[in-house]
Design a protein that fits this description.
heterodimer, A: mainly alpha, globular, B: 145 residues, alpha+beta, 4 helices
Chain lengths: 415, 145
């Protein structure tokens, strides 16, 4: 029974954090993002303490919003008492009605829309796109600084600096939480889509816990993506491509792990367990993305996934076409990560030497997957000792317990 | 006077011990369990703020801790978490704000635990999740009545 409860509340804090941040930012405005984050953090800590002792309340969202509201009202009262310029939390309202307006804000929030609106508001063109995305992930998606740094392949301190500068920009320029115009939405869409892409990735990779795919992060990204795909101003070919990519991945969720949650590699997956309905949906959005006209990185990735899901078997996958798509993706994003994923099709099309050469020129020495794939190629190439060395290295580097078990098993079997 | 009183108590206990009802014996054993207040310090990791996922993990550890104490019959009272604000009242009615000590020194909450003796209580405390965030447990035996 207690296990069941734990299952239900997995990622509760992350989800609640996003909802509460949206509500607070709406009430306070973006120029007071510092206060928003303070109240958010204090409320979450209060929840952590109380729920640790008393268990999780029936409606955690309402509980958190109530606590946050009290803290917000306290904050307004303190500011007004200090005799400083009255803070226009809600412009045009007198101090007396402030508490009431806050209450309304906290009662009538429509999470889905408000979270998406907040994403667009955070993606302000006054700050660099990397900072926009970092801000969205930190404030609205409940990411830690380290998780964001991992997603961008940079140091934690770089992300801290980006966030600090973004907050300062909003504060100094007194940026209100404006609902962006139609034109602004189009400009900001790119950063919002990138944020959703990283949110989905985080769920799919789940860098640090033992659950291999965090479905609710993926589902959340897919849900927000679908909202964009069904709204005229944001339903662009790029949006369709991203939603298509998510849907193709989602079609393979169930077959990617076994009953006890171990990872199953694409090669060994039971293809009859792939979700046909989701595959069809993926194809539907892929066609709508006009892949013959547009070739963003999402289009190329979706095309690669479409070839994977439509292949009869791993061996009879159209590896030539996949290799070609990866080449184009590499031209757009010449990153070691793209090279890493390309190496699997390179192995199939051009053999182990070409795949090894590709990886050697694009080293990712601290990334477990780099060593896992190297190990796989060495094994295919009849080099068991080298394979074992790389697989063991990969096992040392992964933060995911289940993946570590699998890699160690493979390392043992390779010799 | 006092002699006869302690004499009466002695026969009381003798009668009780010769009583062969198991349930009754269990009750006696239960009253020989002592109570200890656990003061949890440094509930929060100071410095870097925990991420939502870390908070979630922290909460699960505390819930597991209480579940285990309950299962072992060692939990007399869950106690409560404490807020970090507060006031101090001193001689002469002088009121000052807050404990304002270092985060690590701040009492974050308390529970009342049943254990055989202080050593047993200390053994139980080793399972407390507060160590994961750099905190500690102060164990104080409750003065028996």
């Amino acid at each position: 029974m207690s296990e069941r409860v734990n299952e239900v509340v997995e990622h509760l804090f992350r989800q609640e954090s996003g909802k509460l941040a949206s509500s607070l930012a709406r009430a306070f405005g973006l120029q007071r993002l510092g206060e928003v984050e303070d109240i958010l953090q204090e409320s979450l800590l209060a929840a952590l303490h109380t729920w640790s002792f008393r268990g999780i309340p029936e409606n955690p969202t309402a509980w958190l919003h109530r606590v946050a509201k009290n803290k917000a009202v306290d904050w307004i009262r303190k500011r007004n008492c200090a005799g400083r310029d009255p803070v226009e939390i809600l412009p045009g309202l007198s101090a007396a009605s402030e508490a009431m307006s806050l209450e309304q804000n906290f009662l009538n929030w429509e999470i889905s829309d408000s979270q998406l609106r907040m994403m667009f508001a955070c993606c302000h063109p006054g700050i660099p796109i990397e900072s926009q995305i970092a801000l969205v992930l930190k404030t609205l998606c409940g990411f830690g600084v380290h998780e964001i740094a991992t997603a961008f392949l940079v140091q934690d301190s770089a992300i801290e600096k980006r966030l600090g500068r973004a907050r300062k920009y909003f504060r100094d320029n007194r940026i209100e939480l404006d609902v962006p115009s139609r034109e602004a939405i189009v400009i900001r869409l790119e950063a919002v889509l990138r944020s959703l892409y990283l949110l989905f990735n985080e769920g799919y990779k789940q860098t640090s816990s033992d659950g291999l795919i965090s479905k609710d992060l993926c589902t959340e990204a897919l849900r927000l993506g679908l909202l964009l795909a069904h709204q005229p101003s944001t339903a662009t070919p790029t949006t369709y491509a991203l939603v298509s990519l998510f849907t193709f991945h989602a079609a393979r969720f169930e077959s990617r792990t076994n009953e006890v949650g171990d990872i199953i590699l694409l090669e060994e997956q039971d293809r009859s367990r792939w979700n046909r309905e989701l595959m069809d949906r993926g194809m539907y959005y892929f066609r709508k993305s006009e892949p013959d006209v547009f070739t963003t990185s999402y289009h190329l990735e979706a095309a690669i996934q479409s070839l994977h899901v439509t292949a009869i078997s791993f061996e009879r996958t159209n590896w030539d076409a996949i290799q070609g798509l990866y080449r184009r993706l590499y031209q757009l994003q010449p990153s070691p990560l793209v090279a890493l994923h390309m190496s699997v099709s390179t192995l199939k099309v051009h053999g182990p030497d070409a795949a090894l050469a590709l990886l050697e020129t694009h080293p990712l020495p601290n990334y477990y997957l780099y060593h896992a794939i190297l190990g796989h190629i060495h094994a295919e190439n009849g080099q068991p000792e080298a394979a074992r060395y790389e697989l063991t290295r990969a096992a040392e580097l992964t933060m995911n317990g289940r993946e570590r078990t699998l890699l160690l098993k493979k390392a043992e079997n390779s010799v | 006077m006092s002699g006869s009183a302690s004499g009466e108590r002695y026969t009381d206990i003798k009668q009780t011990l010769s009583f062969e009802n198991r349930e009754f014996l269990n009750q006696i054993i239960d009253t020989t369990m002592n109570e200890f207040v656990f003061l949890y310090r440094g509930h929060d990791s100071d410095g870097s703020m925990p991420t939502p996922e870390q908070m979630q993990a922290q909460m699960s550890r505390w819930q597991d801790w209480f579940a285990k104490l309950t299962a072992e019959g060692q939990l007399k009272d869950w106690g409560a978490p404490l807020q970090s604000s507060g006031k101090k009242v001193a001689v002469g009615g002088i009121i000052t704000d807050g404990p304002y000590t270092e985060g690590k020194e701040l009492i974050g909450g308390f529970s009342i635990i049943k254990a055989n003796d202080l050593a047993h209580a200390a053994e139980i405390a080793k399972g407390c999740p507060c160590f994961e965030t750099g905190g500690n447990v102060e164990i104080r035996p409750v003065q028996p009545m």
